[in-house]
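Supplementary material to the annual report.
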Amino acid sequence: MQARVSFITLGVGDVARSRRFYEALGFTASPASQDAITFFDLGGIVLSLFGRAALAEDVGVPVSEPGFSGISLAHNVNSESEVDEVLREAVAAGAKLLKPGQKVFWGGYSGYFADPDGHLWEVAHNPFVSLDANGRIILEASAP
Amino acid sequence: MQARVSFITLGVGDVARSRRFYEALGFTASPASQDAITFFDLGGIVLSLFGRAALAEDVGVPVSEPGFSGISLAHNVNSESEVDEVLREAVAAGAKLLKPGQKVFWGGYSGYFADPDGHLWEVAHNPFVSLDANGRIILEASAP
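Predicted assembly:
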């Protein structure tokens, strides 16, 4: 298996509500989106919003109450002030602020917000990793 | 906020065990990895393995029992037979097969496996999307 992820699918309670949230955050829905599923092209990888119960049914697992998903998505930016700015944008779009931007033990600066279904996003500045012109991570051996 | 994901972090019960699982699947751990965290460079995006309790603590949310995470990661390939092959590789590496490869309602062919902590991976062939030479998704307006 190649080391690749093609889609990240978030199970949500209301696809239209979640689509509005991510659009308010600045994401543009793909024309390939349908009522039951929204696609956001992240550049070679796709973020999908799909009904939580439908996703569980698709996988064939019981749909339990949302608890701690055990997964976070991080959005890295180039400065501490940009972390604060993105967190403010997220809250303005309807996110719940879980942790304001702050210096963290690994030497960076980060905060967390939850989307309308509680999916966890970290907004981080990591001085040990670089972002290329397209915002793609350049992971170096010296990164913590 | 730009439409980007920088890191996908999976909270796991035992970082070393999960690292061995993903290495057995064919992923190569970055030299930036440490005992407490493993990084896999997916090409501009990083898959991290981090302790589940440590991740919950980092976010500042209670660490509940793993239930349905509400998130799946998809690994798209170019043919139905490749789906079956990757599912076999995953099982050989210690994954639990949740759904064997099969034709699915949206016109493709897919199956699911769970990693040692229950994180959900779909292996899919979608005849409506293309993969570039690096395996990156090309999302077209006509994709379902």
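Chain B is about 20% helix and 35% strand.
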